[in-house]
Structure formats: structure tokens, C-alpha cells
From TrEMBL:
Signal peptide: none annotated. Keywords: DNA-binding, Transcription, Transcription regulation. It holds the Pfam family HTH_18. Gene3D superfamilies: Homeodomain-like, Jelly Rolls. Residues 173-270 form the HTH araC/xylS-type domain. GO terms for molecular function: DNA-binding transcription factor activity; sequence-specific DNA binding. This is AraC family transcriptional regulator. InterPro entries: AraC-bd, Homeodomain-like_sf, HTH-like, HTH_AraC, RmlC-like_jellyroll.
Amino acid sequence: MVLRDSQLVILWMSGKGYSKDFEIKQHRHDFYQLQYLIAGEENIAINQQPYTLKPNYIALMDSYVYHSYSFNKASKLIDIKFNLSKELRHLLTALFEQPVFVVNDALLRNSFSQLVEQAVSYQTHENPELLIDLDTQVKLLLLQLLHTSSKSTVPNKKESTSVFSEILNGNHFPMLDFLEQNYSQEITLDLISQEFHYSKGQIIKMFSETLHQTPMQVLQKIRIQHAKYLLTNTDFSIGKIANMVGFSDNYFTKIFFKYEHQVPNKYRLTSKKMNDDIVLNTSFDISTQP
């Protein structure tokens, strides 16, 4: 028996691209849908109300609500179709009343990409424990959006979106924040020492006790995580991505292979192909549900 969340169940997920002028005509369905635009521009009508989505915008479609969409340019979006319990739907009423808004927080934006990566992992390895984890993560993202004071400004939830969130278990580690905010810059132990007024030996010990890794290992993993997002969701060259996340070209390929067991180009091809249609409920037929 596969265990799923009792309040939200993902049916299908995609992280694929769409060509300019691609169009889905007006329709409705009995489940809920969330679209997060990564790149490009989308025209969407919800209940006959038109909106224009730009990168980092979210559109949230209620069940049985008519909607249609098309693209003004080549675009890429994360699309999630899911079911909600009556209780959770009632709690999320405010989100559905104004269904289009922008996500400004970089860590929260990155968490959407991580969802697709984990869904691909489930599809590859069929680990049933990942399913309920994915359901729960989408539920938490919706609740984060709900509880923000202004939907155009999403709260900074580092503990829920960090690569090391499970290890931290809700605790705050300022040196990790520093690395996550400055990963694209040149960072050394000397720089961290100057910033936090600890000796290099003390810093190494604090990272070991808190995250069970050295500061440079932590920095590498943060950079790799951001590189994976860029490889999957942009067409930037490998060299440009390396520089954007703080690596030199040659060193980037070596470190990426160390953590992901494949070179960046192969990862990009594989992830883009696998992101297209990820069915997380065997009874769901995407061919009958646009």
C-alpha cells in the first residue's frame, strides 16, 4: 500500500517547456492546478479573467473553474495537478480568491525546482516514501503562500528550503545563511573568519558539529544545487552557469561529476527529458486532462 498525505495528493507534475503560440483552450476539471512560470511569458484566463504571467509568477486554478492559457514566447513552467481535502481547500480560500501572484523569495522559488527533481527521483527509483514527502511539501508551500502578509512578497523560510534543512531541523545557523546568500562569490575560510570573528579552527569545528561537513563541502553542495536548477530551467552555457554559481569551468565539471555521477551536459539532457510528464497517481490519465 502506498502512503499519501491525507489532505493533498499530487496527481501529476511537469517541468517542461512550451513553444511560442502553444495554446490550451478553455476547459475545466475536478482537481486543482498550480502553474509556476520559470521563463517566458504566459497568457492565462481564469474564470474569464485575463492575466499575464512573467517569470516567478504563480497561477492557481480551483476545481471546476474554467481556464485557458497560451504562450507569447518560448516558455518553461512547473505544472502541478493535485487533489485537496475539503478542510484544506477551505483553509486556502484566500489564495484561490486572487489566483495570480508573484514569488519574490529566491529560496522558495528554488524549492519548486527541487519538487520536480524529487518527483523525477521517485519515477526513477519508485521509492514510495517520496510520494507522501512530495504531497506534504506542496501542502507546506501553499500554506507558506497563504500566511504571507502580502502575496507579492513571500516570506523567507530558510529552514524549509535549505539543502541542509533536514540536518538543521528548524535551527538557525548564521554561517550557513552567509554561504547561501553569497555562494556565487569567492568565499574562503579567511573571509568567513573575518565576517563572524571566529578562528578558522573554530569555524571548522562548528560546521562539523552542526552539519557534519566542512565549510567548503557545504559551499560546494549549495553551488551544485543552484547549478542543477540552472541546467534544468535555462539554456545558459555550461561555462556561464559555472561562473554564476562560483566555479571555474573545468573545476565545475569535476565537482559536478563528484556529486551527481554525470557531467553537467548529460544531467541537463536527462533532467529536461524526464521532467516532461511525471505521473504520481496511477489512476490519472494526462491525455484526457489538459
